[in-house]
Automatic annotation (TrEMBL), chain A:
UniProt record similarity statement: Belongs to the anti-sigma-factor antagonist family.
CDD domains (alphabetical): STAS_anti-anti-sigma_factors
GO molecular-function terms, A-Z: anti-sigma factor antagonist activity
NCBIfam families reported for this sequence: ant_ant_sig
Name of the protein: Anti-sigma factor antagonist
């Protein structure tokens, strides 16, 4: 799993590349647990190259969601592959998290 | 068709297990989503066996056997760790998990929703988990 960031104003875009399983999700958890992430108002997660997610990967997002919501930080997923989105759907997480098709859509929602 | 792999109880081996499932099921023409769901269910059980049943003790092993025919795929997982207590299992409430910031506890729910039958048994010191997926 490779994790890359791009920062523009108060938005951090996190690009995930590879597979998020019980082994690699530790990295993402460290990333999202970093106190500096709370400085941003918007976290956009680019899932274009995210080829796989297991419950451990979902668990990382689930465990940070409330903290981001409480701090009024928007967490938006975009470019998600259909098979990865399906895993969110099995648990109904697609209804509790914001998942959009494109970067442009993510930016529009983030700026609403 | 039957295919078998044995790996040590190290979470880094989850990737090897997923590659083994993908390769074994290549001749079975599944949609990308169904194949991913099946790989996920096996990965979830293996992660639980490695992390919870065997406490990531790499001296211990788990064995995965895949059998399939035109109607069904059966995954059989064997290990010698602490058995999974199905009677103590409670379906997670995702809203509660979000509210409390809970990281784990949704893997078995995924397995139960993806697979058509999930069986747990113990034979001496060996725990056996069988996952059935109907494809016919």
């Amino acid at each position: 799993m490779k994790i890359k960031h791009t920062i523009t104003d108060n938005t951090i875009t996190i690009s995930l590349d590879g597979e998020l399983d019980a082994s690699s999700s530790v990295l993402l958890d460290e990333e999202l647990s970093n106190p500096s992430i709370m400085m941003f108002g918007k976290i956009l997660v680019d899932c274009k190259n995210l080829n796989y997610i297991s419950s451990a990967g979902l668990g990382v997002f689930i465990s940070h969601l409330q903290r981001f919501e409480d701090a009024q930080i928007k967490l938006i997923f975009f470019n998600m592959q259909e098979k990865v989105r399906n895993v969110f759907e099995i648990l109904g997480l697609d209804l509790l998290m914001t998942i959009v098709s494109s970067y442009e859509e993510a930016v529009t929602i983030a700026n609403d | 068709m039957t295919n078998k792999i044995r790996v040590s109880c190290d979470r880094k081996n989850l990737k090897t297990i997923r590659a083994f499932v993908t390769d074994t099921l290549k001749p079975v023409h599944l949609s990308e989503i169904t194949l991913n769901q099946i790989i996920l269910a096996v990965d979830e059980i293996c992660a639980n066996l490695i992390i919870h049943s065997n406490h990531e003790d790499s001296r211990k092993n788990l064995c995965l056997t895949i059998h399939y025919d035109s109607r069904e795929i059966i995954f059989e997982l064997q290990d010698n760790g602490t058995p999974f207590e199905k009677a103590n299992y409670k379906e997670p409430n995702i809203h509660d998990n979000i509210r409390t910031g809970k990281k784990g506890g949704v893997g078995v729910a995924l397995v139960n929703r993806i697979m058509d039958k999930v069986e747990y048994s113990v034979n001496g010191s060996t725990n056996i988990c069988r996952l059935h997926k109907y494809i016919g």
